[in-house]
Specification:
- This is CRISPR-associated endoribonuclease Cas6.
- The structure is a single chain.
- 25% of the residues lie in helices and 26% in strands.
- By secondary structure, the protein is of the alpha+beta class.
- It has two domains: 2-80 and 223-229, Alpha-Beta Plaits; 87-218, Alpha-Beta Plaits, CATH 3.30.70.1900.
- The chain has a four-stranded antiparallel β-sheet with strand order 10-13-8-14. The chain has a three-stranded antiparallel β-sheet with strand order 9-12-11, with no helix packed on it.
- The longest helix has 17 residues, at 117-133.
- It starts with a helix and ends in an 8-residue tail after the last strand.
Amino acid sequence: MLVKGGQKEFIDYPFYNFSGLKGQTKISRQGLHFYSRRVTLVVASNNKAFIDYFLRVLFTFPKVDIGNLMLEPEAVELEDHPEITDASRYICISPIVVLQPSLYDAEAKKFISPETDTFSDLLFESTIQRMEQAGEDPQKIEGIGKFQLVPDEDYLNKIRESQKKFARIYPLYDQDLKYEIRGYTFPFVLYAPKVVQEFIFTCGLGQFCHKGFGMLDIANADPSKRAVTYEFAETTT
């Protein structure tokens, strides 16, 4: 869709993220089946012009096929921006990826405990790099000294006790190549300056956010109560 719109600055634009399709589902041997009449996709970016561009292109399609699922674009709503502080509690709408994959080794599948400083350090480095690439104020970035992710210990313990997983291997397609990466899904508190919190809330946390990873939401928030009419920016074309 980004290519179809033909606007060069947005065709390879990476500073956005998106969720999986939300709806009533059931897993079978044949795959994931949707039983909802409607499904929802959440898309976020710190660049409203990009969101406008994506939505305008999306609504030129009479239908969108994803696997055997046939969708018709129907409506768009804007979620009201929640209050974000220097200590915000998040849930993962999509898995967080902390390592870049390589064709020559399986490093990206390596498990790194979220309770270690290494986990926070990797996310800090990728976040600062992406903020610089996105053109954030260099002075604000230079002043960032605090960045610590603290996972919900009770949640992790319950997952372990039930022998379930909060870290899984996922396929990733990049430059027509297939990789395998490890993604993490768990609630956590992030201690970081507000400028960092705002960036990751709109652009995602970790690697490959523009490929459907690293989308977050504020814990205990009710999106249905935050939805308002989406207003497109005025254009001259």
